[in-house]
Amino acid sequence: MFNQLKLFEPITYPFEQQPGTGEALEIAPGVRWVRMPLPFELNHINLWLLEEDDGWTIVDTGLNLDDIKANWEAVLDTHCREKPVKRIIVTHCHPDHLGLARWLGDKLKVGTWITQGEMLNAYAWFHQLPNYDVDGMVGFFRRHGLDPARADTLFHRGPTYRGRVDGLPTEYRRLIEDDLLRIGSKDWRVIVGYGHSPEHASLYCAELNVLISGDMLLPRISTNVSAMSSNPDGDPLGWFLDAVERLTELPDDTLVLPSHGRPFRGIHARAAQLAEHHRERFEALVAACDTPKSACDLITTLFKRDLDAHQIMFAMGESIAHLNYLEHAGRLRRTQDASGVFRFVAI
């Protein structure tokens, strides 16, 4: 469906201005855009304030960093002084989204709203439960061919989740698919997506024609979709592509508010681009698997640049996710050599 990009209206970016430190820029009635820094190649995250008659709702919280906390202090002092924050909604469990939910919740004395899958996954990572821990991850990558040097680097790097999350909420309000959240005078519908994280919640307001897409739909980069040691043979990429296609049921002129990049219009064109991007990757992988290859062997097929340890973790997860997809689709066959390393060969 999505390989003929010319059928769709082009992606447009209606806002040139971006919010600065401590600012909250109104981009739809009652919807304000907050932008905060990240210490990675992906150097920012977009957060959102939804205004109500008697308060505010925060959507996503940022990473556990002192400068982000200071940025929040400025936003709250400037924009939320006269009306209190009433709730915090978290789209998913990754640290740049959940990282300050406990800190903000304790500070503002409000609860966190999140899906159960995301909350339980956060607990598992935070407490390093079996196969959500560094040992499980590194062992998983070793079985997919990661060389000893890079495996040791990841192991000695240790768990990073706890340092990037300033505690977890001790209780939460569960979000489920098609929940209608009454925020002010508007209804926001929960749309659950899979693949990037266990049970990601996007929010759609039909009256405003606005989608807070979280990480499920980004305008310029492809969302990371990784296989995990806790579900080693799953098909997260298939789930992700199905979830993105489902978003095309929304009007094409929906204003999409992504977690990274600028707000945009053009859901159908962006979904088509993502489908084509992964189709090209699938074809390249099948061609490369004319002889048995491990996920580590195929990193250079998927990524054409040097990768640091942080990026290798994501690259291995993505490589395995693509191979799992192709195995599920019947295009690759998995083998295992005498050392226990999985390799894939075209059928």
Q: Overview of this structure, please?
A:
It is a single chain. The protein has 347 residues and is α/β, with parallel strands linked by helices. 34% of the residues lie in helices and 22% in strands. It has 11 helices and 15 strands. Helix 5 (134-143) runs antiparallel to helix 6, helix 6 packs across helix 11 and helix 8 packs antiparallel against helix 9. The protein is globular.
Q: What is the domain tally?
A: 1
Helicity level: 25-40%
Following the backbone from N to C, one meets helices and strands in this order, namely: EEEEHEHHEHHHHEEEEEHEEHHHEE
From the 3D coordinates, which CATH architecture would you assign? 4-Layer Sandwich
Please state roughly what percent of the residues sit in beta strands, choosing from under 5%, 5-15%, 15-25%, 25-35%, 35-45% or over 45%: 15-25%
| CATH fold-level label | Metallo-beta-lactamase, Chain A
Say which CATH homologous superfamily is assigned.
Ribonuclease Z/Hydroxyacylglutathione hydrolase-like
Q: So what's the overall shape? A: globular
Keyphrases for this structure?
alpha/beta, 22% strand, Metallo-beta-lactamase, Chain A, six-stranded mixed beta sheet, seven-stranded mixed beta sheet
SSE blueprint and pairings:
Blueprint: E1 25-28, E2 31-37, E3 44-52, E4 55-59, H1 66-79, E5 85-89, H2 95-98, H3 101-108, E6 112-115, H4 116-126, H5 134-143, H6 148-157, H7 161-164, E7 173-175, E8 180-183, E9 186-193, E10 200-205, E11 210-214, H8 236-247, E12 255-258, E13 264-265, H9 267-288, H10 299-302, H11 309-328, E14 332-336, E15 342-346
Parallel strand pairs: 4-5, 5-6, 6-7, 11-12
Antiparallel strand pairs: 1-2, 2-3, 3-4, 8-9, 9-10, 10-11, 12-13, 14-15
Helix pairs in contact: 5-6, 6-11, 8-9
